[in-house]
Amino acid sequence: MKKIPALTATAALAASVALALTGCGGQPASSTAAADFPKAGSTIEWIVPSAAGAGNDILARIIAPVMQEDLGANIKVVNKEGGSQVVGLNYVAQAKPDGLTFGNTNIPSILGRYLDPSKKAAFDRGSFTPIGSFATNSVVIGVNKDSKYKTIKELFDAVKAEPGKITVGTDSRAGDDHINLRLLEDQLGLDFNIVHYNSGADKVAAIVSGETDFALGGVSSFYGQYKSGDIKLLTVVEDAASPFAPEVPTLKGSGYDVKPMASNFALSVPSKTPKDVVAKLESALKKATETPAVQEKLKGAATQPAWKSSSDVAKLWEERESTIKPVIDELLKQQ
């Protein structure tokens, strides 16, 4: 057998090591860009696709300082509102995939942004890689303090007695509220008179003024008016009571077989961001979520601290999309 020259053997060994490091796709298994991510003094943009002072913005400013300390880089919260959050979400999806830009991709609210063609989103689920989810927001149903409906059964019985007559407000067409109401209609055989407003604040104002019979949405959006007594919560669409309204019965406990509808506050980076960079951001978000002071502040904003990993969020996103897409398709046919 012909011997391989020493130099050639050495070269072959080096090539073998290089191949092992690059992986099957030719990309580094451990990105050199991630090795020193983030560089000291660098700035990471947290894109909030809604206005300053809105729920996403408040939560971002609770989490960002703790993540910043862990990463050793500046985290700048940037509000890019417009187009029912599409402006900010487009910005994140199209950003350079270097870990220096991430943003809110809350589930299920993001689904209506890209599954509805009229919103002209330049992204879909494949445009993002989740970092993780740090909190949940239970869905509740509320009425005016002077409403004649004292229980969820009384309300739903009235809906059954007068199909299409009982009014309910949403914060937008094909948004979370609208989709959840359609799911309730399908699962319980109900028919609401759905009225769309321009924002969650307008929806809540309509309940307080008595303009609509009831409203559905995240408990955090009703919490101030609920604590002041202007709104009465009839039910929580969960299997367990909300810690922010423990006396309010669950829909399941009231005898209605409906799947829970909680929202998840999730963060994502552009899809081609290196895995090592995603892992560093995921670790920092997890540490922030589990920090006692952060948890107290999240609870103060009526959101429940709850950690979900990058992979768990990706799975949840896919599952919710498969459930909600048919509902949005149906809504689009009715336009």
Tell me what you see in this structure.
The chain has twelve helices and eleven strands. The protein has 335 residues and is α/β, with parallel strands linked by helices. It folds into two domains: 175 residues, D-Maltodextrin-Binding Protein, domain 2 (3-Layer(aba) Sandwich); 98 residues, 3-Layer(aba) Sandwich (D-Maltodextrin-Binding Protein, domain 2), CATH 3.40.190.10. Strand 6, helix 7 and strand 7 form a beta-alpha-beta unit. The longest helix is centred in the last third of the chain and has 24 residues. It starts with 5 loop residues before the first helix and ends with a helix.
Briefly, what is this?
This protein is an alpha/beta fold and 335 residues long. The chain is 43% helix and 19% strand.
How many beta-strand elements?
A: 11
Total number of distinct structural domains: 2
Q: Which shape, going by the Cα principal axes?
A: globular
Alpha-beta content class:
alpha/beta
- Average pLDDT number: 90
The total of helices stands at 12
**CATH homologous superfamily grouping of the largest domain:** Bordetella uptake gene, domain 1
Oligomer: single chain
Adjacency order of strands in the biggest sheet: 2-1-3-10-4-11
The CATH architecture name of the largest domain reads 3-Layer(aba) Sandwich
Portion of residues within helices: 40-55%
CATH class type of the largest domain = Alpha Beta
Sheet with the most strands? Answer: 6 strands, mixed
Estimated radius of gyration: 24 Å
**Percent range for β-strand residues:** 15-25%
